[in-house]
Structures are given as C-alpha cells and as structure tokens.
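(Deposited chain)
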Amino acid sequence: MQSSESSKSTSNNSETHLMRKAIVNVSRALLALTFTFSGLVKAVDPIGTQYKIHDYLSAWGLEAWSADWVTLTASVATSAAEFFLGIMLLFAIRRRLVSRLTLAFMGIMTLVTLWLYIFDPISDCGCFGDALTLTNGQTLAKNIVLLAASTATVLWPLDMMRLLSRSTQWIVINYTVLFILAVSGYSLYYLPQFDFRPYHVGADIRKGMEIPEGAEMPQFETTFILEKNGQRKEFKLEDYPDSTWTFIDSKTVQTKKGYQPAIHDFSITMAESQENDGEDITEEIVGDKGYTLMLVSPHLEQADDIHFDEINRIYDYATEHDYRFICLTASTGKGISHWRDRTGAEYQFANCDETTLKTIIRSNPGMVLMHDGRIEGKWSHNALPIVTPDTPTIDKGGLNLDKGNDTSTAVAMILWFAIPLALLTIADRFWAWTKWVRRRREG
C-alpha cells in the first residue's frame, strides 16, 4: 500500500515538474522572440528610437536631458540591451542573471506603460519602432503578459533548457553584442535596412494621402473665449453671442477620432526670400510627371555640410537634364541663408513640417528622388549617388537606383547572424552527443 502511494506521489511530482518546465520554456520563448524582435527593429532605426526617447523626456519635463548625444546613446543602448536579453534567453545563457535582468526590465516598462495608459501623453509607446504600432492599452496588456512570463523564468531559471554548452556560450555573447552594435552603426551611417514608414522607396504619396469614400471623419469642437464688462466666458459656435463681446482666444479639441490616411501631413510651401514666397506647391511636386530630387533637412542649422560638393554636383546634374531640384526644410530664412553661405547652394528652398521631414528620411541632410508622386530612391548624405559628366539620365540607369537599400540587404543582415549561430549550435550539440556516446562506451 505504501509502495503504491509512493509511486503515485512520484508520478504526480514528475507531472508537476514537466508542467513547470513547459510553462518556463514557453515563457522563455515568448520573451526571447519579443525582446529579439523589439531590439532589432529599434537597432535598424536608431534615429527613430531617439525621437521617441525625446518625446518621453519632454513628457516628463526633462528637456534638459534631451541633448542629441544623450538620446542617441540611450537609443543604441536600449536596442542593444533588448536584443541581447532576447538572444540570451533563447540560448538559456546565464539563466539566473538574465532572468532577473529581464524581470527588472519588464517591471520598469510595465510601470511606464501604466502611466501611458492612464495619462496618455504619448499615443504610441514605440516598443516596436515603426514596424508595429500598438495603442497604450494594447501595450499595457502585452507588458503584463511578459511580466508574468519573466516572473516564471525567475522562479525556475534552471528549468530553461540550454541550447549550448557552457564552453561555447562566450561566442554567442560576443557575437550578439558585435552584431547589434554593427546594425545600429550601419543604420546611422547609411539608412535603416528596413523602412516601415509611409515614405519608403516605392511608396505612392498621392495614394497614401487618399481618404476612402464613406470613411468616418474626425470631429472637432471649437470653443471661443470672449469678454464683456471684465467678465470672460466660453462659448460654442452655436452659442456665439453678439458683437458686444470682445474676442480673446479660441481652442479646438478633437471630440471623435476618424480615418487618418497613412500620409496626412505632407505639405510643401515655398520658403522665405523665394520669388513665390509662401505658395503651396504640394500638388505641383506630387503631380510632377518628371523626376524631382529633394534634399531633405529638418534643420539646416544642424545638417552635416561635409558633402555639400556632392550635393551641388547632383544639383548641376539635375539642372542639365531638366529635373526639378529643391531643398525641403523646417528652417527659417535665417537658417537657409546660413546654409547658402556655407555651401554655395543655388537651388530653391521650401518649407515642410519638421516631423514629416524626420519621417521621410533618417539623415540630415538626405536625398529623395520622386517620380510622378512615387518615391524612387533615398540616400544618406554619407552615400549620395556619384554623378559625373558621363552619368546617363535617370531613366537610362543614372543614379544607380537598382543599388539602393532594399529587402535583400535586410535579409542578408539577418542571415549573417542566424546562420553562424545555427551552425555553432549544431556543432556544439554534435560534440556533446559524441562525448555522451564515448562515456557510454567507456562505462
């Protein structure tokens, strides 16, 4: 009887242990995939992550800490840390330490997203860059699940099954750090390998601005602040009083969300000191059946002017072949004049929203080629197309559009990481198996 009870108890313990291992390893896989993906999409667009960190600091009233070098360093460090933790969890390396670090990270991020959910200072947390946009409610739910998963790995870290022997884990550690820092470095010097934004190469600007027929439109309510006999009151449009009241101010708030096209803030007006100062030329640019080369710089005062000779040569090339060349910037006339003095620029300047320009290209300045409303090419100022007197027209292969930053580059980047680690894992497991076979024979 006692033997039967002991056997049943052992069986129950075995089942409990198997269930626990299953929970831990499912949690570990969920965390690993999420952290790896999140870290990678941030690393391929460190400038975008930098902008999001700046938004957080502004919301917390910490603009004094939002210097570019601070936010960019934080951007690269955050993406590297997430990717590193994801790979360490995937291979179950340093299980106790990594699981604790993951729990601490998720604890902090859950508190941050709880704050976002309650006060809504930022509409998108930026967890997955521009690759995947979540509402603050969805982000909080995701983080609660990940917090529970990280708690399970902390409680039973040794139940995570290792994929590699201790003796080869250092290879994965070093290779992971070097790889993710190289990805960020490449993206900073050139352009992101993945472009999830609505202004990616191949995007049709006009199509991105379209609003489907019958789509629900956003609704706004305007309140007017008026004064009479020293007394101020607020009125809605339908209650607007007679002319005896003096207008003081007005405020407009959105009362209902509606359909918002992917591109909703693309507007170009001629800059100060141009012949047609203030003229809206958006339709003229988008509807141009020819080629338009746009030098894009959110702020010319902060733009890198090392490659201005190459930019001027591209301008000469555009002039020679009757292509439009224009610089889009959010800078004022003073900034434009200073840029002209520094570079000898002879091209036209137009104004566009700062956020839009930062979204169009992650380079200051950067070059964008548009044809019939479609983006045909994008270049960082560090990799501008080389033009010479013999360079053919664009339609005959000029500017080397086929050598741009495309999907094949991104796939190659991932394979450079995945294949070596896969081969290492196979070799390590084969070596472990041969050692086990030798021990069996010797025994």
In short: The chain has a mean pLDDT of 89. Residues 2-43 form the longest helix (42 residues).
